[in-house]
Amino acid sequence: MPEIIRTRDCTVHFKGDAYPVSVSSIMLQNGWGGCQGVQWADSPTDEFVVTYSDGLYGGFLLWGSNEPADAWTALSGNQLKYGFAILCAGGWLTSTSNYEKYTWESRQVGPLVPNNYVVGKRLTWSLRGLLTCQNEWFLSGDPRGSNTYYVAYVIQKPRPSNNWNLVVQTAI
Amino acid sequence: MFFKGDSYTVAVSDDMARGGWPGGQGVQWVKANSDIRMVTYSQGLYGGMLVWGSDESGDDYAAMTRSQPHYKYATILLGGSLISTSTYERYTYASRIGGGPLVPLDYQPNDLLYFSLRGYWTKENEADIIHTLFAPAFFTGFVAQLPKPSNRFFLGIQTSM
């Protein structure tokens, strides 16, 4: 039985750096989960804007845009309404339910094959900005080659006792 | 500065005290004769960056006027910060030293940044270009916002030191 109540996409056990940033219009249209990886984007205005990571960082967004835990609270929809989010960087210890659960290859054609997370292994952002143990740039033939933008280490692999959360130490 | 990382005071070298420096100047450690921690202009290595310039117009007629070069100290910033700075290389290294027409550097979001051979922020790994002994230099940040009229052509940087 889990001893830590994990009701959010991203549960924080130790906090690193955090500050508000603007989010791109495509993120405002489509929303995001907590622990979404983001990278910097250009903007015509004098704002610091992030968008979905495709392997680069930035950092990750602390709260999702539509998390059930925020329903009927003051946080409901306010990130989308005002176009901001909290960017997290530096060293964090977090649990997250928002990570790549299946291999990149199996997500393309199926059947789905679970990713095998190993304690101590380094993680990058996937091509859609979720934590993954695979090198999706290399697997997808991305012209950037091999992704060496490591953002975290596995502290605890997903299992029933942690509600199938991936527990990571970030280093951004 | 929009988000502050780690900072503390350090001594600056005689060269820096004489020559001055702008805010955002990259610095590296240098040997001192006494038990102080001393920095000098970065040549691609770090340290960190100095928050305030030695002679910034924003300090005119304030208590800070010339206090840093007078007492030979400065505040070093490192770790993860979010900053805007005018202290970055506008032109490619080759065009700056080659005597030819200056070629602007084309910064893009998420570009890796290094300290240039004079300690300014740049996307070129100048230590690698001239094959210094310590090349390639470590990256020290990422481009978070491009220079443009609305930010007075400052470069937005997420530091990573």
Fold blueprint:
The complex is a heterodimer of chains A (172) and B (161).
Chain A lengths: L9 E5 L2 E7 L1 H6 L5 E6 L7 E4 L6 E3 L16 H5 L1 E6 L3 E4 L7 H6 L12 E4 L5 E2 L3 H4 L12 E5 L9 E5 L2
Parallel strand pairs in A: 2-4
Antiparallel strand pairs in A: 1-7, 2-6, 3-4, 3-5, 5-6, 7-11, 8-9, 8-10, 10-11
Chain B lengths: L5 E7 L1 H6 L6 E5 L7 E4 L6 E3 L16 H5 L1 E6 L3 E4 L7 H5 L14 E4 L5 E2 L3 H4 L11 E5 L9 E5 L2
Parallel strand pairs in B: 1-3
Antiparallel strand pairs in B: 1-5, 2-3, 2-4, 4-5, 6-10, 7-8, 7-9, 9-10
Labels describing this entry:
A: alpha+beta, 2 domains, six-stranded antiparallel sheet, 30% strand, B: 161 residues, alpha+beta, five-stranded mixed β-barrel, five-stranded antiparallel sheet
Structure description:
Chain A has 172 residues and is α+β, with helices and mostly antiparallel strands. Chain A folds into two domains: 16-89, no CATH class; 95-170, no CATH class. Chain A has helices spanning 25-30, 78-82, 104-109, 136-139, and strands at 10-14, 17-23, 36-41, 49-52, 59-61, 84-89, 93-96, 122-125, 131-132, 152-156, 166-170. A six-stranded antiparallel sheet of chain A has the order 1-7-11-10-8-9, with no helix packed on it. In chain A, strands 2-4-3-5-6 form a five-stranded mixed β-barrel. In chain A, β3 and β4 (49-52) form a beta hairpin. Chain B has helices at residues 14-19, 67-71, 93-97, 126-129, and strands spanning 6-12, 26-30, 38-41, 48-50, 73-78, 82-85, 112-115, 121-122, 141-145, 155-159. Chain B is built from four helices and ten strands. Chain B has two domains: 6-78, no CATH class; 84-159, no CATH class. By secondary structure, chain B is an alpha+beta fold. Chain B is 12% helix and 28% strand. The chains are: A alpha+beta (172), B alpha+beta (161). The A-B interface holds A 16-17, 19, 39-49, 56-59, 89-90, 172 and B 2-3, 5, 79-80, 82, 108-110, 142-146, 148, 150-151, 156, 158, 160.
